[in-house]
Automatic annotation (TrEMBL):
Pfam families: B12D (PF06522). Keywords: Electron transport, Membrane, Mitochondrion, Mitochondrion inner membrane, Respiratory chain, Transmembrane, Transmembrane helix, Transport. It comes from Albula glossodonta. It comes from the Eukaryota. The keyword Transmembrane applies. GO terms for cellular component: mitochondrial inner membrane. This is Cytochrome c oxidase subunit NDUFA4. The keyword Transport applies.
Length: 82
């Protein structure tokens, strides 16, 4: 299969950017899914030690990927500690 792809790329060099951008898009989407799985506070992988990780977050901790016009350092906690 790899030789078929190499032969096609040799015969049609205009396909090289297509392979490059499709591969880059697939890589970035997998990296984003991995970030969501490991950094998102709603995801809990360890149910014994920390069953509710969202309760241990500080109010000044940024967990969103992009925060437009939001200064997390000035936020204060409104609710009680659990």
């Amino acid at each position: 299969m790899l030789s078929t792809v190499a032969r096609q790329l040799k015969n049609h060099p205009a396909l090289i950017p297509l392979f490059f951008f499709i591969g880059g898009g697939a890589t970035m989407s997998m990296m984003y899914l991995a970030r969501l799985a490991f950094r998102n506070p709603e995801v809990c992988w360890d149910r014994k030690n920390n069953p509710e990780p969202w309760n241990k977050m500080e109010p000044t901790q940024q967990y969103k990927f992009v925060a437009v016009n939001m200064d997390y350092s000035k936020l204060k906690k409104n609710g009680p500690d659990f």
